[in-house]
Amino acid sequence: MIAHLPILQVALPLLAAPLCVLLRSARAAWWIYLLASVAAFGSALLLASSVATHGPLHYAVGNWAPPFGIAYVIDAANAFVLVLVSGIAVATAIYAPRSIAAEIDPQRVYLYYACLCLCLTGLLGIVATGDAFNVFVFLEISSLSSYALIALGKRRQALLAAFRYLVMGTLGGTFVLIGIGLAYAVTGTLNMADLAQRLPALYGNRTLTAAVGFVSVGLAIKAAVFPLHAWLPSAYAEAPSAAGVFLSATGTKVAIYAFLRFAFGIFGAGLVFGHLPMSALILIVGTAAMLAGAAIACYQDDLKRILAWSSVGQIGYIVVGLGLASQQGLSAAFLHISAHALIKGGLFATAGIVALRLGTTRIDALAGLARSAPAVFVALLLGGLGLIGVPLTAGFVSKWALVMALIEADQWAVIAAVLLSSLLALVYVGRIIEVAWFREPPLLADTAQPSTPAPMALAMWGLVGVSLVAGVYAAPLSRAATAAAAALLGTAP
Known about the structure:
Layout: H1 5-23, H2 26-54, E1 57-60, E2 71-74, H3 76-103, H4 109-128, H5 132-151, H6 157-187, H7 192-198, H8 206-222, H9 232-238, H10 241-267, H11 269-275, H12 278-297, H13 303-323, H14 327-358, H15 369-372, H16 374-388, H17 394-408, H18 412-438, H19 454-472, H20 475-489
Antiparallel strand pairs: 1-2
Helix pairs in contact: 1-2, 1-4, 2-3, 2-4, 3-4, 3-10, 3-14, 3-19, 3-20, 4-5, 4-10, 5-6, 5-10, 6-8, 6-9, 7-10, 8-10, 9-10, 9-13, 10-11, 10-13, 10-14, 12-13, 12-18, 13-14, 13-18, 14-16, 14-17, 14-19, 14-20, 16-18, 16-19, 17-18, 17-19
């Protein structure tokens, strides 16, 4: 059974999507999505356990041996991401029903779950496939379903946000496809392992250099790397709350993983970080993202927009880690991928509960939240502390690992930027806490929902709780991140 899990991981949510549409029932569609996400999560855990015990798994689709057939390869790097993405999908499934009922037309709910299934399929496929062209195929599946998820937001601005994302996402996908096509033109293969063997002999080839550039820019757009981030703030702010939880925790992280796989597993670190000046460029871009995202977040007047701009800055930390091109830097990048996914997923879940209770996520409407909804306020506070990087949170663990990697690389200017961006995070998180704790609630407060639905609270506290556990007991996550970095570099953990 383990041998077939790499393909089942992707096939189950793919088959669930048309089933949601055929049944045309909101409740049935929710059950289908829940079962598909639980199955994907269980498969990911089994795959991760098998990889840790026996090493990488290889699966040839239709028994066509690679490089002639499509292969799925699971190693410590993508097993790490598979567990994260599918785990977030389960939390989203628990969170979704009450949130969706309040934000989406009942006649479209089954379509919403179908899009969630497709998005999950695309993200898992990007991570699991061993074929470069399939990365593009799954990238488009996840992107197209994401556009639809965002467009289903209840405000008119959701359509504009989806359209902006569609335009930029199409550009990103086109760049990735051109890059893959150029790599195929000089090698005659699309299998990742085969590409990795043939490309070193072609270092210096202009076509190959162009392929690296196209793939890097295309995936940077998909990952919302500054300054190619323009689609992200509106998309996250206007998406329905359940979609915001899922997309904020997974979409950009999988795009970054795809870049890591191309840079280290296909093109090779010798080309990307040796022959080309990518390391210096990535460090500059990541540093700018950390500072710009955090600074702009300080001036937002809506909770979801603060969290969205914060994501732009937090992506900068991950980019800086991978830009070091060292095992310690990559390990820090994987740590921050997981830490930010858990923290930001929990915070967007909190924002969705705020929207349900208050009918808005504007900062001034949070006045008195600490007294009217203390549990929601505590979750918001704990998540905010994670974004700042306070000790005993997952954010501290990943930032500390990043700072250690930067010290090893003698990047003192970037370390100063990390500290400054953390201070800016203290400012925008402090604004939220100040309003919620110190200000009096309006005398005529009109709440759309007097209490928090139990499933939404469970999902929120599940994400926040796991992030806290990862901060207090960081050893297992650190080992997994180190193993993931070693798998990409081809070294011993």
